[in-house]
Batch of 3 targets.
Target 1
Amino acid sequence: MFYNNKEREIRIFDTTLRDGEQTPGVSLSIDEKIKIASQLDSLNVDAIEVGFPSSSKGEMDSAKKIIKENFDSNICGLARAKKTDIDACLEAGVDTIHLFISTSDIQLKHTIKKSKDEVKEIITDQITYLKDHDVNCLFSAMDATRTDIEFLIDVYKKAEQAGADTINVPDTVGIATPHSMGQLIKKISNEISIPIDIHCHNDFGLAVANSLHGVEFGAKQVQVTVNGVGERAGNASLQQVVMGIECLLNLKTNIETEKLYETSKIVERLTGIQILPNTPIIGDNAFSHESGIHAQGVISDSETFEPGIMTPEMVGHKRRIVPGKHVGRHAVRNMLLDAGLKPNEKELNEIVSRVKDLGDKGKKVTDVDLYTIAEVVMNSISKEVIDLQELAVMTGNQMTPTASIKAKIKGKEKRASDIGVGPVDAAINAAQSLIDEFPDISLKTFKVEAITGGSDAIAEIIIEVEDDEGRSVTARSESEDIVMASVDALISGMNQLMIKRKKQK
């Protein structure tokens, strides 16, 4: 279709703050919305849908405050085909109004209770009213993929005649296939001259594929959300759509792709929707390799077991070789050399054997496990920089959780205390306060898993710490005391990271 047309630029319309916030359980404060909008603007998305101004005072206030930030991205507000909704968007001061009305038979009957003729009349009246106020109009026929095609094209023609600037084709309930979406966009593009925008939901896991196929057949703008958040199974993922457009379709976007990973992490933190490790592009495992054959190939040439047309650096991610029961000698040697450890052949064989044994027992093998095994085998245990002495936590329903900690840092005793939203958070904050003389080291990830049942369950804590030069290590601790395990894992990780840095330098 449009392969290799490098001059064709696809606009990216982000709806994380509108459709994304409709994810069950997600509710963003105004400050959180501004943080996400700022990151999206930095990412250079073409348009940001900031919400539904007529739906609540909070939505109106957040829209106004985002607009006051004077971002470069076009700011869009959602509106039903009603003057009150349009007026709310105008009051907020948006650049574009996303006007929508249901068009499928089932929604005409059960949602808006209007006839097809009434819908066409409403479209003409409301778009005319909107354009009288000199605002850009994006018109959406809701549930387009379940709408009779002749009526749908008639609706879009009415919208174009009334002055709409762009029409949106939404797969509202996610029932399209790539082939059907492509054919639909082709038919519509043969009938109207204004740009086509697509909005795909992920109910069958096809949102990204449908979006890309729509672009192949002529869509000029794609609606997406960061991490694919959204109602039900979510929307098309911004990261996957953008990299698909640029790397697979060989087309252009304005996105600064090296900021995709950091954008993903910000939205993950603020929404509380955790990214699965195997999530394409931005998951922890997206560029990770354990298998001996894969790791050896990647170390030699990354294109042996990676796409090649997409690298971790392109999306702001990092390639990792991880230890485990499938790991090979070549990978282990390289991981140890990166940490300043140089085992001989006999020592390397023993280290690999012990790592595989640990993996065979069902354990996740962390970087710290690998370094500890290597140092034991090589008889070169490094002296710890931080030695934990005492930890105390106070909590209750009438007090703020508070933790105090004592440790020796480079042989000198030091104490610190801090508060948190819970005992674990307070303990971690206290530990980080204790080691504030290492400001270039930060806690990157923190995961908790119960590995036994009952009130005395043993918890496994897995953390990752990183320094300002991109070095990182993972560490693990297990205990029935989740607070103690958390601090042990953090300090273990920091010790290993500082040892790694010292040996590399």
Target 2
Amino acid sequence: MITMDQIKQVANQGPYTPDWQSLGKFEIPAWFKGAKFGIFIHWGLYSVPAFNNEWYSRNMYIEDHPEFAHHVETYGPHKEFGYKEFIPMFTAEKFAAKEWADLLKKAGAQYVFQVAEHHDGFQMYDSQLSDWNVVKMGPKKDILGELKTAFEEVDLHFCTSSHRAEHWFFMGHGQEFDSDIKEPMEKGDFYWPAMPEPDNQDLFSQPYPSDEYLEDWLFRTVELIDNYQPELLYFDWWIQHDAFKEHLQLLAAYYYNRGIEWGKPVGICYKHDAMMFGSGIVEIERGKFAEAQPFYWQTDTAIARNSWCYTSTLDYKETKEILHDLIEVVSKNGNLLLNVGPKGDGSIPAKDQQILEDIGAWLAVNGEGIYDSKPWRQSGEGPTEVFSGQFQEANVKSYTSEDIRFTVKGEALYAFVLEAPTDGTVVIRSLAESADQNKPEFHGILQAVEVLGYEGELSWTKDHEGLHIQCPELRSELPVVCKITMK
């Protein structure tokens, strides 16, 4: 088992060292910038009760939460049936790593993050630091290891995430009444440390994470890195707390130096300015930017509005909405990470499968404007406003046929018409003729115009109002993509 001295040795061996000055030399892996579309997977013990969302382990111990009443009614008192009693029920009898990999590849994804450890503290991988993992309990198989093998066999980049930071307080409410979460607890225990929940918006909140806990977080993450060699590592919220800063820099330098040893570029996705800007990949949860950014970024969202894991009451998004998100993000210099939640038995719900297959079918036709593309000099045009920031999904955007987003690749400009016109006419105003060479309107020469996947009659003209594309037989419930080839 690795020691702290060995961690520090690797972290300081170069070319990276554990300080923001050095970590600021980080370069985002080239493959990631070309990939554009990835899949997040939230699957764990919380998928067994499948009630409300993936925070079941916390909320079932809070007396005024619906999870509390549901738990008592369904499973009995907490002191007799605590969260740990879900472990024997988590048998994953229908889990098939190869089937998952084939489905996600068919969906057009280029990389996949399976959650390695969520806030509940149950590890979805083999660990020597805790017995509370899928190899020693529950399925008794290395879920993460099997997925890594299956993903890499179909050329999906293997990535993973740790949500361990929040475990400091995540189970703490169970100590407020007669439950199975009781002191004393020691490091390595499933519920440990179960501290009182702080103000999670306070970056200096008390009780301040202890050195013992921070070192445990560090060692678990290093074990994950060394044993599974993920190409990207994702950290969820609360890692931005002041207590983690020194350990996070140590971990980042360790990981980046390990990536160089392995001969493959790696990176850390982070939220809430947990890391210094430029030392990793900026992440936005359920949100986006209004305009294209000069830096590369990623948004993570879910296939359902109300949960990241499978539940019996999922509020699914429509395929069109997800494609709108993908197009918006890619046109603004980012990637979309879309979460799916398998059932407790390891099967992927039929609705998730259908949405993924629909996305894959659309990308099979239109993906050339997505993959390996770059933003154009303007990200789009049209009347519908997009606002910058996280958690912007409460209201679904009603796009029109005038809402168009752009990408470029090679000699082509791709114009994504977010709502297909009912009359077969597309007008791209950003390509209007301009009599004044000093104005910033488009002055290039158009060589050819086509609509990807459309085989009907097509004609186009260009004037001071824009590029007019006539496609009288065009019918689509999903966005359509115009490919404009430049001379």
Target 3
Amino acid sequence: MSEFNLINILRNRGLISHITNEDNLNKLIQNNSISLYCGFDPTEESLHIGHLLPLITLKRFQIEGHKPIVLIGGATSLIGDPSFKKKERDLNHINIINIWTEKISKQIAYFLDFNCGQNSAVLLNNNTWFKEMNILSFLREVGKYFSINTMINRSAVKQRISRPDQGISFTEFSYTLLQAYDFFILHKRYQVYLQIGGADQWGNISSGMHLINRKMKKEVYGLTVPLLTQSNGIKFGKTELGTIWLDANKTSPYKFYQFWMNIDDSNIYYFLKIFTFVSILEIQKREQQKYIKNQIINDKIFLAKNITRLVHGEEKLLAVERITEFLFFKKIHQIQKSDLEQLKQDGIPSINISMIKDLQEALVLSSLATSRTQAKKMISANSISINTKKIKQNHLFENKDKLFGKFTLLSRGKKNHCLLCW
């Protein structure tokens, strides 16, 4: 089997957690252009970085000539996937689901090509078929093919059943049947032969393969990508500071970029393999040179740039670089008003100011100093800057201190900043 075979490429990049009947799947995708799908339930208004791996995997299949289908779970999101969740999700109103569906659909459209001929991506919503089905039809057409004994022994279900304080409702228990029916419908109507998802979706994907085999006597396939967790065991994509969203209005491109700059050094080259399209040879070369002075930080910058460009585009990446130059290298002349608004969003601490006496008061209000006395000492020690310019004595703010008439960057040393918003 060629090392350039798509499945081998995915495996070499660490993008495969589970796969069914690999030999048959390899033959199928080598000799045919297939349709494959991945589902995303709109349980929030944005995807987060935990969704990047399945999106990138869909893109890799499309690059190789296959047709990706993205299924938005307009119906299944009304139920909620219990897979490895500690407690039952709150049920959202269908009007909210519809709004979130529209937002997520726009995000997904950024990653895939929806206008490239025969393998153009397709966006579907499973509410299309579920809204036409009643409960009796569902039980007859789907429920009869599943054993409660098998379903109850799925690890995701067992985990919840073993928690007497939570348990699992029949609503969530039925979720795997809904996803199985999705795969069945997509195979029947769109000739989908492969479903991909995160590793936590393996049970649901297996249910779909089982249903298609029982009802149509056909072999279809499943492939899952790793479900990444951080060193503290928290699911990747969520941090102590909150989820890292793909929506620039929820997580600014600057904060997104800084997230990758602050990952553990041990993850750099693995993340380059799974989250970027940089060649394996270049990644290996960089890893071999990691002990060269400054190479680790250069490779982190390389990683952060690649992923930020992938998610937010070149223009937003340039804005991030201007902000970085402004904060860390004092290149104030390049900064734009929109960059400072991005900083205010979630880049650095900020406070709204209407009137203020002097620099000492500003330092206290911004929590860069605990008192006017400490602020005075900091100023005397030459550790305070206004808009990257060192201040050697107490200062009364003037209009020239307000960038674009609105912002003032207050800094203590090189790493502690606060944006004053007038």
